[in-house]
Design brief:
CATH class: Alpha Beta
Strand order of the largest sheet: 7-6-5-4-8-1-9-10-2-11
Number of domains: 1
Distance between the termini: 39 Å
Structural class: alpha/beta
Shape: globular
Radius of gyration: 22 Å
Largest sheet: 10 strands, mixed
Strand content: 15-25%
């Protein structure tokens, strides 16, 4: 049955893209083609600042702590990586497939997608098309893909020439996605294309056609007030972190160049998608979303790299979108979360949003008269929960030669920075004690985050708390929790516990945001 009256849907999902450090400013084509031609969300957040927890929750519209496997009461390893939720009946892909959409997965969906996607003769009925790397995490030159073409019942494995320029991941993803879009338009079927980029995840390796430009760059990581900041009032892991020695800051700056260089090829991918939809004559009937699974830090609070902490650098992410009914140049400052993406796509497709979703459709904030969108924004949430329970011992990662300006002859060559400071202390940026939940409040009177840590992720016993007033302390330098009066502390604890206990409210429970 043809459903050509339904809009086409495209979701381009980056890996590790920040807002506060300036990475998003590199995406000039993306900002022009999506943000300027549609809408920019300035206060968009991730549900959890790590790849798989974020992806697990956003594909089912639920908070990470609401999709962890039943019976898991402590931290992982692996306990929270509930990746097969994407096949639940109320998950995004099954629901869109059920109402007639052709669906496509290209690139990275989950870190562990090899276990449930990458095999010969694997039935994947909710996907019309598949073009994924079998080892997607930071794999810019993967030679093995799992493929399902339109009309196929099962998957097949495909090997490509991994040494050729055309094997670079973002070029592959653009070509495979746009080929699917052309097939869907020829068949007069509405489609949903999920494009998960490799980058700028570690080890960030720019595309070969951008390497010469990147090798000339001298830009480094921004020296914000929090950069290499000694934070004795913060969580013990942060408080004990050694200062990044001056001679090792070269690796932080190199990673910044790596990341920006990778974003150039992602910017090209977005332009290719928009150009293809325009050539096919369906751009004006298509919604395109662009975001990241989480943010990033580079040197802040003496953390050399990565994410996973309850700071704005890690939890605030870019979000741009365009499509029918969205006024070009729209700016939305409402507190939105990536659990809102699935309900928004379903809403735009004409499907009912499941009652078990924690997220809400963003469409009322974007589409309607000025009075209607203004009223929707006034009624929107002013607080949300963000949580993380994937902490483990992790050290400084790798950078590429190109960003160190050493050579462009071997772009895939990598160098690992020293794992210890001159004092002998380890550059440890995560450990099992880093399991937390956060209440983020943003309204007319409060711009705060309140965080509780419990290594068991049960929160019957909290072993550390932090409170940041971002209006007074935008770079989160000082933990104000000890200065709060006991009744204030009790009130914040109660509010966080109440929000954390919400399940599938979808706006129905007035005690839930």
């Amino acid at each position: 049955m043809s459903n050509v009256t339904r809009p086409n849907l495209v979701y381009i999902l980056n890996d590790d893209t920040d807002v506060l450090l300036g990475a998003a400013s590199t995406l000039r084509q993306t900002r022009a083609l999506l943000g300027d031609a549609g809408a920019t969300f300035t206060e968009f957040r991730t549900l959890s600042p790590k790849c798989t927890p974020s992806r697990t929750g956003q594909l089912v519209g639920r908070h990470y702590h609401n999709v962890r496997p039943r019976g898991v009461t402590g931290p992982p390893p692996g306990g929270g990586l509930n990746q097969t939720t994407m096949f639940e009946p109320t998950a995004l892909f099954p629901m869109l497939a059920a109402i007639g959409y052709w669906t496509s997965i290209v690139g990275k969906v989950h870190n562990g997608q090899q276990s449930f996607l990458c095999s010969d003769h694997n039935r994947t009925d909710v996907f019309t098309h598949i073009g994924t790397q079998c080892k997607p995490c930071g794999n810019y030159w993967g030679a093995e893909y799992v493929v399902k073409d339109v009309g196929d019942v099962t998957t097949r494995l495909e090997t490509i020439n991994g040494s050729d320029w055309s094997a670079y991941s973002h070029g592959q993803f653009a070509n495979r996605s746009t080929a699917f879009m052309r097939a869907a338009v020829r068949a007069k079927r509405p489609f949903f294309a999920h494009i998960g980029t490799t980058g700028p995840h570690l080890p960030a390796i720019p595309a070969p056609w951008h390497l010469e430009e990147v090798s000339r760059w001298t830009i480094g990581a921004p020296r914000a007030p929090s950069f290499n900041f000694d934070a004795p009032s913060h969580h013990p892991t942060i408080a004990a972190a050694p200062r990044i020695d001056d001679d090792k800051l070269v690796y932080v700056d190199a990673l910044m160049r790596d990341r920006l260089g990778v974003l150039l090829s992602i910017d090209d991918l977005v332009a290719s998608v928009v150009g293809t939809l325009d050539d096919l004559g369906v751009l004006d009937s298509s919604y395109i979303f662009y975001s990241s699974d989480h943010g990033y830090h580079l040197g802040e609070w003496k953390l050399p790299m990565e994410k996973m902490w309850p700071y704005e650098t890690d939890t605030r992410i870019p979000f741009w979108c365009r499509g029918p009914g969205i006024t070009p140049g729209t700016v939305v400052d409402a507190l939105a979360v990536n659990i809102d993406i699935a309900p928004t796509l379903l809403h735009l497709a004409g499907a009912a949003v499941p009652a078990n979703y924690d997220g809400r459709s963003l469409a009322p904030l974007l589409i309607g008269t000025r009075d209607e969108t203004a009223a929707a924004r006034r009624a929107w949430r002013t607080r949300t929960v963000i949580s993380f329970a994937e902490g483990g011992d992790q050290w400084w990662g790798k950078v590429s030669q190109a960003a160190l300006n050493l050579s462009v002859a071997e772009p895939a060559a990598e160098i690992r920075p020293p794992l210890r400071s001159e004092s002998g202390a380890e550059y440890l940026f995560d450990n099992p004690s880093n399991q937390w939940r956060m209440l983020r409040v943003l309204n007319a009177t409060h711009n705060v985050s309140f965080v509780e840590w419990d290594p068991a992720f049960r929160f019957d016993v909290v072993n550390f708390s932090a409170f940041f007033d971002l209006s007074a302390d935008p770079w989160q330098l000082h933990n104000a929790w000890p200065a709060l009066a006991p009744d204030e502390q009790a009130a914040w604890r109660a509010e966080l516990a109440r929000e954390f206990a919400c399940r599938g409210h979808h706006g129905r429970d007035t005690d839930c945001s």
